[in-house]
């Protein structure tokens, strides 16, 4: 029998998790999921928790005076290197981007090229559109297996990590205390967001219509369930019957009142894909719903590994259980630019 060794093998610490390194940290708090804030690694939290790190935010503060930078213990899975960006880049309609707002990077999709070099960005989680200048945008990238995907564009010889401007003392409250409502200060008022058009969008939903319904419940966020509108029950409210969700006593299909923010038509089946590519945004059919994910690996025989950011899970799907992801924005279907060719 081999003798026992008192020494324990240690997994090498990635360079970006070493003390003093600048990183980006995501939050699991309600209202902040999907956002990334710059911080510095202070040290590993403790020997008993080797995967947790003490970090200090650059622009989040732990006091009202804005002099003491907020420190938190976070899991290594919430940390990544600072994302690179091309120094100069022309953005376009439907591109998947990160937008800098209140000192954090928020994932969205460009829905309109506005005047004066500005762009309207739609945020799926808050279902809001906000106008940004190009300097406050970067191409959205994922940190996968120690690499940025998509990589920096070949035409760009230089890149930079954006250093967000210093906050004045007067505005140095903790972002986490004020974001949810005060961030949305420049909501776009483009022609397709006029009141008249908003009414036409509402008018698209009627009794008997086939729709998809989303939920804000924990464990169900990001999923869309097939349903049928039973009747209109009030202003911006609808009674729907699900096609796959049953009542608690299993005697029939579940009915529920849904507001207009959580309902959309069935996506059109006009986009036919022979094969998906790495980093394509897709909807995967799982547990009777469609879930937003990314193609993480391409396997033989039309099978794919899909990564779900909200749950940090990877699952394997057949081609037939996937569809290109589309967003329903102000009465129009928008498809984000897809992944790596």
Automatic annotation (TrEMBL):
CDD domains: Tudor_Agenet_AtDUF_rpt1_3, Tudor_Agenet_AtDUF_rpt2_4. InterPro entries: Agenet-like_dom, Agenet_dom_plant. Gene3D superfamilies: 2.30.30.140. Residues 15-87, 89-145, 203-271, 274-330 form the Agenet domain. It holds the Pfam family Agenet. This is Agenet domain-containing protein. It comes from Erythroxylum novogranatense.
């Amino acid at each position: 029998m081999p003798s026992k060794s008192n020494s324990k093998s240690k997994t090498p610490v990635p360079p970006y998790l070493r003390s003093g390194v600048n990183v980006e940290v995501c939050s699991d708090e309600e209202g902040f999921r999907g956002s990334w804030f710059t911080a510095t690694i202070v040290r590993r939290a403790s020997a008993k928790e080797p995967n947790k790190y003490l970090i200090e935010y650059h622009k989040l503060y732990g006091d009202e005076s804005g002099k003491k930078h907020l420190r938190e213990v976070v899991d290594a899975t919430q940390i990544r290197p600072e994302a690179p960006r091309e120094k100069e880049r022309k953005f376009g309609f439907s591109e998947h981007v990160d937008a800098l707002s209140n000192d954090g990077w928020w994932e969205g999709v460009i829905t309109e090229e506005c005047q004066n070099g500005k762009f309207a960005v739609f945020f799926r989680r808050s279902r809001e559109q906000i106008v940004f200048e190009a300097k406050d945008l970067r191409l959205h990238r994922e940190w996968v297996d120690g690499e940025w995907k998509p990589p920096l564009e070949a035409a760009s010889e230089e890149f930079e990590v954006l250093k967000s401007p210093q906050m004045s003392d007067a505005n140095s409250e903790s972002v986490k205390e004020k974001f949810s409502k005060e961030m949305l200060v420049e909501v776009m008022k483009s022609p397709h967001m006029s009141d008249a058009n908003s009414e036409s969008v509402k008018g698209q939903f009627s009794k008997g219509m086939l729709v998809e319904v989303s939920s804000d419940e924990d464990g169900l966020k990001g999923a869309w369930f097939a349903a049928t509108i039973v009747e209109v029950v009030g202003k911006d409210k609808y009674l729907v019957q699900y096609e796959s969700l049953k009542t608690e006593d299993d005697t029939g299909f579940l009915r529920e009142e849904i507001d207009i923010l959580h309902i959309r038509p069935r996506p059109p089946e006009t986009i036919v894909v022979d094969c998906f590519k790495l980093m394509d945004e897709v909807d995967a059919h799982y547990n009777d719903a469609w879930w937003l994910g990314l193609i993480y690996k391409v396997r033989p025989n039309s099978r794919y590994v899909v990564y779900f950011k909200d749950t940090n899970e990877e699952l394997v799907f057949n081609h037939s259980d996937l569809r290109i992801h589309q967003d329903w924005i102000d009465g129009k279907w928008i498809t984000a630019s897809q992944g790596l060719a």
